[in-house]
Amino acid sequence: MSRALKGGVFKALLLLSLAVGFVMLGALLVDVFRDGLPYVDWMLLSNPPSSSPLDAGARPAILATLYIAGLLLLLAVPVGVGTAIYLEEYASKTRWYNRLLEVNIQNLAAVPSIVYGILGLAFLVRGAGLGRVLLAGALILTLLVLPTVIIAAREAIRAVPDSIRQGGYALGATQWQVVSRQVLPAAIPGIATGSILALSRAIGETAPLIMIGAVTYIAFDPTLLGPFTALPIQIYSWVGLPAEEFKFLAAAAIVVLLGILLVMNALAIWLRNHYRRSW
Amino acid sequence: MASPGVTAGAGLPLRARRRRVGEDVVKGALALCALISVATTVGIVVALFVPAFEFFQEISVVDFLTGRNWSPLFEPAHFGVLPLIGGSLLVTTLAALVAIPLGLGSAIYLSEYAGERARGVLKPALELLAGVPTVVFGYFALTFMTPLLRRIGIDVEIFNALSAGLVMGVMLIPTVASLSEDSMGSVPRDLRDGAYALGSTRVQVATRIVVPAAASGIIASFVLGISRAIGETMIVLIAAGQQPNLTLDPRQAIETMTAFIAATGAGDVPTGSLEYKTIFAVGATLFVMTLAMNVVSIRLVRRYREVYE
Q1: Do B36 and A101 touch (CB under 8 A)?
Q2: Which residue of B has its CA nearest to A258?
Q3: Of A171, A221, A182, which is closest to residue A57 (Cα–Cα)?
Q4: Measuring CA to CA, how many Å separate B122 from each of A246, B89, B130, B164?
Q5: Residue B268's beta-bridge partner residues?
Q6: In chain A, how many domains are there?
Q7: Same domain, B118 and B23
Q8: Are residues B180 and B85 in the same domain?
Q9: For the segment A69-115, what is each residue's pLDDT rounded down to a tens digit?
Q10: Cβ pair A150:B280 closer than 8 A
Q11: ipTM above 0.90, yes or no
């Protein structure tokens, strides 16, 4: 009996610890939506920020976040997939430099994001004299997200069975023909899913962008080589303002950000389920 | 893609040679992609340590690491980093007190108690927490957790280490849970069956067989969680304050290493000034601390993979 009681108590404790995570997630969503939803309107999407909370919007920030997402897709995904192909298909695992490369990527994935901000500040903003521009932000987020894209793409490539490669070689194809016409097409759903999830993490990153974009009022639409604000920076700068209304605006901007992330994640899940293939 | 004339037939030596050149070009381009990761690491090390080295030519390392007073931007300037390290460790300790037991508990439930279908729903749902941007957790700590703490009678300042640490702990539950659950999942079934055959209860199997057998992965998840907590910026920047304060009282406002870096980096300190170099000295300190922990955690994960997979 006491054994059964002990078992019951233990199980209840485990369930409780799992429940805390869900309760807090629920509380967070309720907190944000209750404060922010009334402020999500056309003005928020179409107006620039303003010192008066009544007509302040987040248009430049939303646009910049979308630009950054596009640039990440153009920069991080090709380089990440290229690295993954090299490591999975070309690199000999016994060479010291390839093993070093692998450890290096694992370590980079765990470097705090603020350190990437320091890298951007030192080399791009100050060193290269780019200044606090959107391109610098996109480049740093590219470096930040690369390890995640590489790891996801490697898993997708590894999941393609060897028999496919051997079939290709048996028909006389070269290595690159096998990779580009057999392995990559088969791995694309996995690569796309992993890349979108990685990008959605990068878009919510705030710390490195604060270092690069700084917290300023940007009242005009972003350009590649112009000063910028992004949705997470806008949220941070509104949270820091004393007037209560700006807190609600921050919550409204969070709702928009979560909306963008939700769309990206839904797309990733749909891709995964729609194109799932078992070998 | 290939020109129409090129087929899989490999007869002509001339064509074969030309194609091998193409193969080498592709391989070179792919290796170049891989080199970007190496260049990033080199860039980080150079960006941090060159200015940090210049900083330590003006301020002695001993004064930096043992000084209890941090006020680099005011006259007279003091460069003792202990208040910032103390702030980071205080918040990290609070976060670990939340994330380690709850993450481990969640992992044991998911691995040993939940059925196949329940796990399929619960695990991705828990990972939603990991997908929430940290700036949102910061907002939550400031506008929800701090008022909540006050309502239940804990007398916290507006900016305080306690609510930042608690919210950060919640954020890290999936980090701890998912890596722990992975390593418990790779413990062979035979071990569990053997224990049940000897009359063990489910609790005994979970706590005396599975957890010890998965220990290296579980410890790796703790180390990784702690390293993330030290490197986390937005929650502490928004909710814990920007006030260097060497204290053990979590109700007070503090400043962490990361919050100092972000706040100073966003400002307009002139390039090359001593104030500018403090960013890198603190950054290098942070980098060394997190790197050491990440190396330990990667080693531990490799060990459990070697044992069971």
Answers
A1: no
A2: B132
A3: A221
A4: 35, 31, 13, 26
A5: none
A6: 2
A7: no
A8: yes
A9: 999 999 999 999 999 999 999 988 888 888 899 989 999 999 999 99
A10: no
A11: yes
